[in-house]
Here is the input.
Amino acid sequence: MGSAIYQREIWGLAARDWADLQEPMMISVYDDVLRRLGPGNMRSLLDAGCGSGVFCTRAVDHGWNVTGLDATPQLLDRARRRTSAVNFLEGDLEVLPITSQSLDVVTGFNAYQYAGDQRAALAEAHRVLSEEGQLVFVTWGDPAGSDATRHYERMIPFLPPRPADAPPVYAPWTKEDVGELVGSAGFVIQDYDVVQSHWLYRNTDHAVRALLSMGSAVRAASLVGLDIVTEATKDVVHDCLRADGRVLLTNEFVIVICTKRP
Ligand SMILES: C[S@@+](CC[C@H](N)C(=O)[O-])C[C@H]1O[C@@H](n2cnc3c(N)ncnc32)[C@H](O)[C@@H]1O
Here is the structure.
């Protein structure tokens, strides 16, 4: 196991709210990726860091033969309740329990940045993909383009200092930096695009509970207490409150589709 042991402690604590309230906020990005990939026609797809399986479920509906892998058992429980049509595996992005060159597509939505060694995790994706296989790497875009950045910035003072050699949380996102990262694992970029994702919550309670299920907030609450983290989260939510009582966070993500370097 690489970083999975540490990561699953964090993501497991608020798994229900993540599954019910937060993960579905990314549906427009999931559907965008499925459109770019075209019909599945029962080709094989691994969603690495699949969380509670919202993307996996949609991929099955688009005709893919889907495996989902995640480090967090509580999220996998939620995923298995969503669908029995996906083979959900507990495991580590850095050591995939999958035969070499056996898959057509590997997707990772906000997952690879949590691997202790991103390059090793991407090299594993490269190993399990067929020669014509595609990697879909989705991560945060420019921090200045995302309201969720404000929430993360409010969490930083509660979190331990990041080690000097840790990669920045919101990087890489430029085409050059992503190209360098995926290139180190043997991929070349076929398509790079910046998209917006609108996280629209029913009301302030919905938004606060959803944002408190994010890994940084869960970690912060375990260190300084839930009350303090809730107050900081409420400030951010208040700034994004609309006249109709709903809460809107507009965020930027990059979708990068890669192929194996010939
Ligand atoms: C931000 S969540 C994203 C979940 C899902 N892909 C989505 O779009 O909502 C990060 C996910 O990565 C998983 N994760 C983090 N590090 C991992 C690792 N080393 N191996 C496997 N899964 C990991 C966490 O358990 C969590 O489900």
User: Anything to note?
Assistant: The domain at 4-146+169-199+251-260 is CATH 3.40.50.150 (Rossmann fold). The chain has a mean pLDDT of 95. The pocket of S-adenosylmethionine is lined by residues 2-4, 7-8, 11, 23, 26, 49-51, 55, 70-72, 75, 92-94, 109-111, 114-115 (CB under 6 Å). The chain has one domain: 4-146+169-199+251-260.
